[in-house]
Amino acid sequence: MSLRRRRQRGEKPKATVDMTSLIDLTFLLLVTFIVTLPALEQGISIILPEAKNLPEPPTKDKKANTVTIDERGIIYLNDKPLEIEELERRLMALAAEDPEVPVLVRGDERLTYGAVMDVVKVVYKCNVRRMALITVEK
């Protein structure tokens, strides 16, 4: 028996679109985004602490400046390592330019509470009005 269906009298041929290539392209794009998304996150690899009921970080209109403290206690401002004194100078300059500059503080959960609080004190000392501690939701 033939798999092909014969046209009856007066029936026009039906046009079909082969979806196989479109599905292949969709999966290719999906895999590409899954592979590249972790690379687009912040460059310093740390383990963030967990918290419940997270508020939105204060970054709605402006690009946030990220202060990261890794497990060894090294401080980074926007992925560039620096000492705490240099951090204070740079944050003072940013706050003088724009008092509403958002600053996100990311501290590795393996750090002591005091190490993160030293950085938070510097942020407050620089009169930064929009600061948030970044955590991972439980």
Task: Please describe what this structure looks like.
With 138 residues, the chain is of the alpha/beta class. The protein has a domain at 50-137: Nucleotidyltransferase, domain 5 (2-Layer Sandwich), CATH 3.30.420.270. It is 35% helix and 18% strand. The protein contains 3 helices and 7 strands. Strands 4-3-2-5-6 form a 5-stranded mixed beta sheet. It is elongated, with a radius of gyration of 26 Å. The model has no long low-confidence stretch (mean pLDDT 80).
Low-confidence stretches: none
What's the level 1 CATH class of the domain at 50-137? Alpha Beta
Order of adjacent strands in the largest pleated sheet: 4-3-2-5-6
Remind me, CATH topology of the domain at 50-137? Nucleotidyltransferase, domain 5
From the structure above, extract its key features:
138 residues; Nucleotidyltransferase, domain 5; two-stranded parallel sheet; 7 strands
